[in-house]
Structure formats: C-alpha cells, structure tokens
Amino acid sequence: MASLYLTDKCFIGRRHPTTRILMLLTAFAPPMITHKLEVMAAVLTLYVIASFVSGAWRNLWRARWFIFLFLTITISLWSVFHKAGDAPYFQWGPISPSPGSVFYGLAMALRLICFLVAALIFLSATKVEDINYGLIKLGAPYRGAFALSLAFRLTPLFTESANQISTAQRMRGLDTSAGNIIQKTRRYIAILAPVLIAALRRANGLAVALEAKGFGMKQKRTSLMRYPLSAMDFLWPALMGGLIALTVLYVHFHDYFEGIAYRGF
Amino acid sequence: MPDEYAITLNAVSFQYRRTEHKALDNVDLRVRPGSFIGIVGRNRAGKSTLVSTINRIVPKLFSGDFEGAVSVFGEDIGDRDVAEMTRRVGMVFQDFETQLFSTSVRLEAAYVMENLGMPRKHMETQTAYWLDTLGLSAYADCEPTELSGGRKQRLALASVLAADPDILILDEPTTDLDPVSARDLMEFLKKHTRKGRTIICVTHDLESLAEADEIHIMSGGRIVVSGPPEKIIGDANILKKHGLRAPQIVDLFSRLEIETPCFNPTKAYNILKHRGYRATADTPMPSDEPIQENILCAANDIEFGYRAGVKVLKGINFNVRPGEFVAILGQNGSGKTTLLRHLAGIEKPWTGSASVAGEESSVIPPAKLATKIGMIFQNPDHQIFCQTCLEEVAFGLKNIQAPEDQIDARALEALRVVGLEECADDDPFAMTKGDRKKLAVASVLACKPQILLLDEPTTGLDAVEQQALMDMIQRLLRKDHAVIFVTHCMDLAVQYADRFVLMADGEIVLDGDLSDLVENADALKKADLLLPSATALGKMMGCVADSPARLAEFLTKDN
C-alpha cells in the first residue's frame, strides 16, 4: 500500500485533528523565520527526533533517495545562482559559487527538508478523514476540505495502479531495472497513459459513488469519529509556539550580540 | 394517494452521448414494495443503465438523451439530485472498489450515514450491526484496500445497508464472493424483503434468483420477457434464446425432457427418482494420458504475508505437471491470488520457494520468465498499455527479443487465436471488457509461455463470453503446457479443470481430481465452497458429473 499513514498510536496521532493541523502549521514557522544554518540544523534535528519518537521514520526512510536528490539539487542551484557577496571560489559567466552561497544553499535545502519531515510526521499519524475533520473544525467548508483530502486518498490508489501496470509489463518480459536513465524514463512515460486512463476511470467512478452515497446532501454532516480534547491538545501547540518564540529570540539576540561584537572590534 | 409501487418507470429511454444505439429503449417497469426483483441479460443489454435511473445516476451523472419518467414511491424524481435519493435508494455498484474510499472499514460503513447527518450513537449501532452481520467485525480497523475482493464487496454492501434505504440496488453483487458467501448473501437479501425492503438485483448468476419474486430479461435496452423464476429461469429455451446460460438443473431437465421447473438438487433428485432415473456410470473415464514426471512449476513450503506477523500463505506445497488444467478454489481471502503471484515471481516468499522449470521464479530475468509463465490479471485494464491491439500483443515479443521479421506475424497469429484478428489496429481501451480480456490473453500467449496463470478470468463477463473464453483456453492447452486458474465460479472450474486445489486460511485443504472434490465434503466446507448443482445432484444419484450434459449421459430411465 502506497499510503503514508502508518499509525495514530503515537504522541502526534493521539492529538485532536485540529491540534495536529495547528502543530503542522506551526512546525513550518521556525524554518521560515530565518536563513541561519544553525537554526535550520537544530530544527531539523528536533523534527527527525520527533519522527523517530512518532514512528514516522519509516516513511522518512522510504523517502531517503528523494530527500538526497532534493538536497543535492537545492544546494547545487543556490550555490551556483545565489549572490552572497563574499569572494567566489571561481567565476564562470553568471556562475560564481562562494562559501556564503554554498551555506545559503545548504540552509535553503535544510529548510525545505524541515517542511518535508514535518509533513511526513503529520501524514504518518493522520488519517485522511482526520485531515478532513480537522479542517472542518477549523472552519473550512466540507466540500473544500474533502477535495483537499481527496488528493491524499487518490495518490496511493494511482501509485497502486502504476505498480500493477509495471508488474504486468514485467510479466511480459520488460526488465524495468535495466537500461540507462533515458531508457528508464521512457519506460515510465509509457506507463503514464494507462495510469492516466485508470485514474480518470477511477475518478469518474469515485464521483458517481460519492453522489450515490449522499455526498454534500446536507450542509452540516455528522461524524462517527469522536475526538475529545485533552490538556495535551493545548500543551502541544503551546510548545510549538514556544519553539517559534525561541527561534525569534535566538535570531534577534544573535543579531544583536553579533552587532555588539562587530562594533567592539 | 400514495403509489402502490416502490418503483415505476414509464417509457424510459436513454442514449449515452456519442453512442449509436439506445442503452434503454422505451422501458416500462413496475416494482411492488418489499419485492425481490432479478434483472438478467447479456452484457450491454442495458441492465446497469436501467437500475441507475432509479437513483438518478442516469441521466444526472452521465450525459445523454433521456426520455420518460421515473417515480419512487409515487414521487416523480425527475427534479431530484443523486445525493437526495440516498435515503430512499442504496446502490452497490458492479465495480464496487470505486465505492470504497475511506481509510478504515468502520469509517467506510458509516460514510453514508455521516452524509445524511445521522446522530453518532445511531451510526455506531448501525455500523457495528452491519459489520457483524456481513462478517466484517474482525476487520473494522483495517484499510478497505487491504481486504480480499469478496470482503470488499461485502463492505460495499454494508456501507449502503447501514443507511437503511427503502430500495436496495445490487449490480452483480456476488462476482467476487466464494460460493457459500454468495449463497448466504442471497438468502440474507431475500430475508430482508420480508422486512419491507425492495431489492433489485442485476446478475449473471441465474441460479441465485430462484427465490426472486419476478425476473426481467433485458436485451438491446428493452425488457423482453418478465415473469416469476419458474417461468423465466426455469425455461431453458427462453434463456437460450436470449444468450443466457440456464441453471444447471434446468439445463439437465431440458436435456431429459422433464418439464417440471426445478433449481434445487435435492428436489431434482426426488423428481428423478420418482420418474425412475438411475446413474449408469459412477466415475469419469480415466485419462489414457500417462502422467508426466517433469514438473513445470512448484511451490515448496511457501510462507508469506503482506504484513509482519500475519501469514497469508502457511506452508504451501504443490507441483504442476505438463498437460494439467488446475483450478485453485477457496474462500475469500484464503490466499489464492497470493499463491498465483508467487508462482509468477511477483512476490518473494518469507520462507520456501516458488520455482518454474527448476529455477526460482522471483530471480528469473523478465524476458526469460515471460517465455515460461504468463499471467492474466483479474482486471485487464492493468495489463493494457499500447495504442493498438497489434502493438499490445507485440510488446511482449519485443521484450523477449523475438526475431524482428516474425513479430508482426506472431502477434497477428495470437490475435487470430482469440478471435481479434480484425481488431489489430483498434484502440484497446475502446473495446468491451470481454474483448480486452481476450486481448490480455493474446498478449500473454504471443510469448508462448509453458504455464498460463489466470486470476478470476471470467469476472465481468456474461455467460456466453465466459464459456467462449474458457473454451478458447482449453483449446490452447497442449500436452507440454499447463493452465492454473483462480476462480469463484464453481460451474466453470468443475467443467474445465482436471485438478482442484482447495485453499482455506492460507493452507491447501484438498488437492485432487473431481472425484476427490465430490467425495470430500469436509474440505469443501472448510473452503466455503459448494458443488455446482449438477455435480451435487450427480453425487446424490451415485455418479461424478462435471456438467449437466455429462450427467444427462450418465442417467437412464427404468421402464
């Protein structure tokens, strides 16, 4: 199964869906506040620890090659194109990588990976229905919330469809692991058409099934799920708020003391 | 004044956009509340379109030209939306998997009720009741995608019934159910009509409609014959005229020229005895073919599961020799498809091994494996990926590096074998499901594999298409080849296979020929299987028969 959801039996999954969404949103804030590499590294370390504690590391491990690729491309692009103002290693037309641009690239990559890890922790501990529920409780219209959650519902189905087609191709003699990157890419493109057709059929069938199951019949729908709020549902967002405050304070005082130190010289 | 009918269709016609013929052509239908109605007919007769008009799926969600009027409990539903009909009309689709989109069985069962705004307490009670009634309580927290086909089908039904609709529409509700579950479901539905629920059931399994109040045969978008079961499915000539396969006892009685309508083997036995029939042969003629020693494929002590700690296969051992036509049968979720996937090298066992011609199948390079083993999946759409039928069949030939100058000729030959030679340049996705299935067979056959694996090859096909596909596969089976197929359709299994492997809870509980199958009631019970009616009747009469035709040959009448 290609779904990212693993378990809700963890410190994240046990929270009210609204709390989880708020935690996710606040988790995006610290890396957004600054470009400082040490802040990104510290926040990322914290999130990776959280992924181990919550059990989401399995999804992180599944995504390891994607993360590696992401890291490499982001660092390379920022290093090459970002003008940090310090002395470059070399100059080749508009390309002038410098220590400053490399560090900046690394910070940008860590920022994006922070987002990715936070999202993976959230999705590993949150069912699609919980996302839906949480969004509605936060005031989102049901149709909008459902449409958003539908993307999470359908992605695994399409992945499954692609896997089935790939298996059928292997059974007809196609060695999907052989060849160079271009040949492999061409093979994946060949899968796209049947996956797309299967996806359209599925989406069409889903639309009909949803209507037949009374989707959108009432403005206010009820829910089988029950999520009693506990003290922890207030504590965790507070802690996340604390993390944001800590980041702001660090950035502020770091700049302040750095300024004093600079003036002192 | 309230209408005396639950459903009324007045001169309803519908033509889907961009099609040449009407899917429904001036259909009139009256259904009384609390009745159990069967709708039968060949594929593309208009059955699904007809039932889709009752909850407004047609014409609301499918564009086309609609004429006529539909009323539900006396109320014209012409201005209603599909969602508004949910409380009155529940529908289980033919493609039931599209109907499941929640992340747990429990939530799926409650989905309609949530949309209807029912109180949580009521939803909890209803969900628990229906999951228990349909044997799904143990899976309440599982993801629907993890369930076997049969359990998914039952879940689709539970999710609809939980909302307690007045009218229940079932479009092919038993295609993925094992025989015992299918029988239980039909009995359960019949009981429900006594509680006032109106049930409309579209099916190819005519025997399952023996208890219906009325049956309608559709052809070319029209209801061509209507009547009680005795008149409709009890008359082999009417069924034959409309391309339908008669229930086995009806077929037998027709051959014996007995005019008493009967669907039940025990009743049939009494009638035959009363009329002085007896069996003249008690066992099938043994095959003259010597048993070949070489093993084509083997499962050696396979243990496997999709999740840690949950075994789907528990120590499976079996060998297949050239010339064998093997049916793998068993209850829903017993591991039949998983076993097939191991033989095909798609799955790697936890312990043990699956081998093809002495080599472990999961490590054989794809190009080599394709010449040894071919697999036809349940859904043909997952194995079609080219623009034309010819390209589709040539796909495998190119991969196995068949000589360039022979590829087209071999592909055309494979298309000819399945009767699709005229469709070489056609778009596969524009073909009917039956033809897409044939194309999938041709695509696999082109590589000339020694072993053909088929997973539920007849699902979604009507009786004529089923027979044609199985006849074709039987013709293709040569002495040095083997066919292994997974099915819930006992009639076809008994008619075509010469060896039966019965599975229950991940284990093989019987491996033998038809005589073994007939004699071993315990294994059948463990695997939730029922003998086809003719075979069950043959057993009572003291012979082993694989079809009504064979049983008729075995029976003679004392004068």
Which helices and strands, and how do they pair?
The complex is a heterodimer of chains A (265) and B (559).
Chain A: H1 17-33, H2 37-54, H3 57-62, H4 64-81, H5 99-125, H6 128-137, H7 142-171, H8 181-212, H9 232-264
Chain B: E1 7-16, E2 24-31, E3 36-41, H1 47-52, H2 57-60, E4 64-72, E5 75-76, E6 89-92, H3 105-115, H4 120-133, H5 149-161, E7 167-171, H6 179-194, E8 198-202, E9 214-219, E10 222-227, H7 229-232, H8 236-241, H9 248-255, H10 265-274, E11 277-279, E12 297-304, E13 313-320, E14 325-330, H11 336-343, E15 351-356, E16 359-360, H12 366-372, E17 373-376, H13 389-399, H14 407-417, H15 433-445, E18 451-455, H16 463-476, E19 482-486, H17 490-496, E20 499-504, E21 507-512, H18 514-519, H19 521-526, H20 533-541, H21 548-554, E22 555-557
Parallel strand pairs in B: 3-8, 3-9, 6-7, 7-8, 14-19, 14-20, 17-18, 18-19
Antiparallel strand pairs in B: 1-2, 1-4, 4-5, 9-10, 11-22, 12-13, 12-15, 15-16, 20-21
Salient structural properties:
heterodimer, A: about 260 residues, B: about 550 residues, alpha/beta, 6-stranded mixed sheet, 21 helices, 22 strands, about 35% helix, about 20% strand
Structure description:
The complex is a heterodimer of chains A (265) and B (559). Chain A has 265 residues and is mostly helical. Chain A is built from nine helices and no strands. In chain A, 72% of the residues lie in helices and 0% in strands. In chain A, α6 runs antiparallel to α7. The mean pLDDT of chain A is 86. Chain B is an alpha/beta fold. Chain B is 34% helix and 22% strand. Chain B contains 21 helices and 22 strands. The longest helix of chain B has 16 residues, at 179-194. Classes of the chains: A mainly alpha (265), B alpha/beta (559).
